[in-house]
Design brief:
428 residues, alpha/beta, Urease, subunit C, domain 1, TIM Barrel, 2 domains, eight-stranded parallel β-sheet, seven-stranded mixed β-sheet, 15 helices
């Protein structure tokens, strides 16, 4: 396939114009030429966006528990509903989330959720790339048994195609030291990165110090579970020493600005993390705490939040933020063959229609991406050279997905969830 007569974001933080050719799932040629004199920009091609932390099937729970702080949100609104979800529910939520992501230019997602095999099968059917994991937990009372065997078995599974299996713990506070050490020992053979939540709230961070005399990152590093690297969601309360450990261990900080603000958790110090050598990527989190899967919105907020916090408009250039959503995310997930528009790289691309009122004039395309674009501006999403979303003709299509069936499946499953949440709110 070819994408012709398009502007494009290129390695080395350059902007070019020309044609991108894809063959056998990779970019086979990037043919640059001068843009026609006087021609207005028509489209812009970006590397496919990488959502580095998500609970995709939470499309089933979009907006549930809004206005609650994290622990109450989990315990009162989320956990009771999740306990009743089935494989079929999660498959429906995963498919709907893939539709939302593909229509917004996201080509790869790192997902953490129960009913993981059902979610993996559903995601594979959509054609997206994904790193999935079976969430490891070990509650203090011993039930469930810790799910160590399930966590390791999933990491060993051959998901095939465009999916990869990683190891996972939900968090320091939903595991114990024995579980983490056992998972670390098992991972010596597997060598998979760890997907986990860490230091999301001040309470979580401080309670870990009270329990172990160390921050969550320091504690987890001591168990050996970070020895194969990983990607850590939130990191809002991480210290400089935590960042140094993360840089040494090859642990990516996954910034989730929307979720952290909605839940009142705070602001991850990503500028300082970058100064100390930490790879920083972006993720949406799930739609119950966001409430969308729009990576353009995450780029926009990441840029604005940190300029405001620093009182410095030079903090985080547009290119810094774009690389978080593309190149850095691909690196975090062990997919260094993607994240850039270059010959030999994976043909994962998204194309934006620049012929929109809010995208003209197009003086500075990287600035436009971060500060003006929306996911709804995407008109083409390509994974491994295959078109998975196309709205260039005006009517959106998802060639690998039956959209109407997916919508009916989702809505039929969310009616009971809506009634349960309404009942919870009526009791407040």
């Amino acid at each position: 396939m070819k994408i012709e007569d398009t502007w494009m974001l290129l390695p080395g933080r350059k902007v070019g114009f020309g044609t991108i050719e894809c063959e056998n799932g990779v970019i086979s040629a990037v043919r640059l030429r001068a843009a026609p004199s006087g021609a207005r920009p028509a489209t812009l091609a970006l590397p496919g966006l990488v959502n580095c932390h998500c609970h995709v099937a939470m499309t089933l729970l979009r907006g549930i528990g809004g206005g609650l702080p994290l622990q109450r949100w989990l315990e009162e609104a989320i956990f009771p509903i999740e306990a009743k979800l089935t494989d079929a529910d999660v498959a429906a939520g995963m498919t709907w989330g893939a539709i939302e992501m593909l229509s917004g230019g996201t080509t790869c997602v790192a997902d953490m959720y129960d009913h993981t095999y059902a979610g993996a099968e559903a995601l594979a059917a959509t054609g997206m790339r994904g790193n999935l994991c079976f969430p490891g937990v070990a509650f203090p009372d011993g039930t469930p048994k810790g799910r160590l065997e399930e966590c390791v078995a999933f990491a060993k599974a051959s998901l095939g195609g465009r999916l990869a299996a990683d190891i996972c713990i939900h968090s320091e506070y939903l595991t114990d030291e024995g579980f983490c050490r056992a998972l670390a020992a098992a991972n010596c053979e597997l060598g998979r990165p760890l997907h986990f939540h860490v230091s999301e709230t001040r309470k979580e961070h401080d309670e870990c110090i009270a329990r172990h005399g160390r921050t969550p990152i320091e504690y987890l590093a001591d168990t050996g579970i970070l020895d194969c690297g990983g990607y850590a969601a939130h990191c809002v309360w991480c210290t400089d020493d935590d960042f140094r450990v993360m840089a040494e261990k090859g642990v990516t900080l996954v910034h989730n600005p929307t979720s952290n603000m909605k839940l009142g958790s705070g602001f991850a110090r990503i500028v300082r993390a970058m100064e100390l050598g930490v790879n920083v990527a972006l993720g949406t989190d799930g739609t119950a705490s966001n409430d969308n899967l729009d990576m353009f919105e995450e780029m926009h907020l990441a840029s604005l939040v940190h300029k405001g916090l620093a009182n410095d408009p030079t903090v985080l250039s547009p290119w810094d933020v774009i690389e978080m959503a593309t190149k850095n995310g691909a690196k975090a997930l062990g997919r260094e063959d993607g994240g850039e528009i270059a010959v030999g790289k994976a043909a994962d691309l998204c194309v934006v229609d620049l012929d929109r009122p809010h995208l003209a004039p197009a003086y500075d395309l990287p600035n436009l991406v971060v500060h003006s674009m929306h996911s709804s501006d995407v008109v083409l999403t390509v994974v491994a050279g295959e078109i998975l979303y196309d709205s260039r003709g005006g009517r959106p299509t998802w060639p690998a997905i039956d959209f109407e069936r997916a919508r009916e499946d989702l809505l039929s499953r969310t009616a009971a969830i809506g009634r349960a949440d309404a009942a919870r709110r009526d009791m407040l």
